[in-house]
Amino acid sequence: MSSLYPDFSSPELVGSGRVVLILEYDGSCYHGWQAQKTGVIGVQQRLQEALACVAGHSVEVVCAGRTDAGVHGSYQVVHFDTEVLRTTKSWVMGANANLPDDISVLWVSNISADFHARFTAVARRYRYVIYNHPVRPAGMRKSVTWNYRPLDADKMHSAAQCLIGEHDFTSYRAVGCQSKTPFRCVEHLRVKRLGNLVVIDIQANAFLHHMVRNIAGVLMTVGAGKAPESWVQQVLQAKDRTQGGVTAHPYGLYLVDVIYPSIYQIPKWSTGPAFIDAFNL
What is the pTM of this model? Predict the structure, then answer.
């Protein structure tokens, strides 16, 4: 289980218990991850429909981390339970044959019954990609967030370091966030320029609703010279969402990794999104 490349030649059957699956998706056409009851479509709904075609029964999946409307996933992990057995090729290719082009199953395997895609995870990693140029992009308009003001990535990185560690992130979460606690532990937070792209890379034990987008909004304000570096710390200490500025757009945000205890042997993949993989951040 060390490689994310599925072994279609293996005679081993997958199913008859708990199954773990890794997928990627372009979230720009979806109303977030979660299946909706109001007529709008979530990524979860499309995946469940496709898996049901392979399994021959309804399937309910549980994900590692819900993403908002317009947010992408280059490494989303889900689990589901099934009584049927299918080959790896049947699960992967069968699901993809029934999925739209903006969702793709990458890998599938059996997993022990105590595995839970959300609660077993020990950390999650996101990247927020900003296209920093005076002219708006066309081809990547829903893959990145556009900021026309020149951004100082080094200043953004320096300012962000005060957010590392365990803190009360009330100022950086949505007002309607339903988490029982505002405390989260950020393991790393890096900002780096790659040509016209500025990438914010953050890993934490878990995230609050809109936490990454609110951090990105504050850091872009600092990077554009509209606020001093110390403002990031001031916002954190205020414990007041109204002090945190605007919530950044969703388009540049990607769930790029989910970390589990090694006992589960969930395979690793090059950290996305794909168009910045070559930079080896």
Answer: 0.94
